[in-house]
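note to self: dont lose this again. the chain is below, predicted strucutre after it. 271 aa total, dont forget to put it in the shared folder this time
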Amino acid sequence: MARIFIAKGRPRFNPLIAHVADVDGAEAVGVLDKRARALALAFWPGPLTLVVPCRPGEAVCDLARAGLDSLAVRVPAHPVALALLRAFGGPLVAPSANRSGRPSPTTLADAVQETGAAAAAALDGGPCRVGVESTVISLLDGPPRLLRPGAVTRAQIEALIGPLAEAAGDDAARSPGRLARHYAPAAPMRLEATAPRSGEAWLAFGPALQGPDIFNLSPSSDLAEAAANLFSFLRAADALGPAAIAVAPIPESGLGEAINDRLRRAAGHVG
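---
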């Protein structure tokens, strides 16, 4: 477990998500209340992480939980991940394969470039279908809280369990992906840009000019397509060594909330 933190350069206070094969596996390591079960039934397997009270014992060790009494857990949808979890027979932590703070890899090649030297083996399941990380919901004392927006949208969750409060106080430390500067390229970023400046790479959205330094997240303004392309295009733009990466405005609705969260953290605009 410690070698994961070393390979990623990850702060020890940043908890890891435990991945399990099914709801029974989640119940074995965490306490799922009525709200958690409703969300699990609706969105598992899938990109939703639940932060719940940890069951006593060492099924998920203290280091993985960053010393907290809570546990972040989910059931992934990818058949390779599920096959691995079923073969192992217990929870596995599975952070993204980037160096801490860097853009997340969405292909095996990018993962190998980031942390491949520290890995003993690799399983290639193809490019990530969703692109952005899982939504994280805290279901501890009090109202449910949105700790990290992601592929399952706020509206989808609120339709099942009611309004979501924002992360507050210690809640923010219970989820990965909440560092003030996270998912960051080497180049500085300029958000809400209406056009690129000289020397900038351009992350466009919607109808836009074409060119060697232009990466269009979705020419048709499709947020799902933009989410799937976000990290791979961010990494490709950064590889050009631009003076900066300019990013077109992205709507805040639906998946746009998760995309903008990643962009603001990449630009260091959070915290």
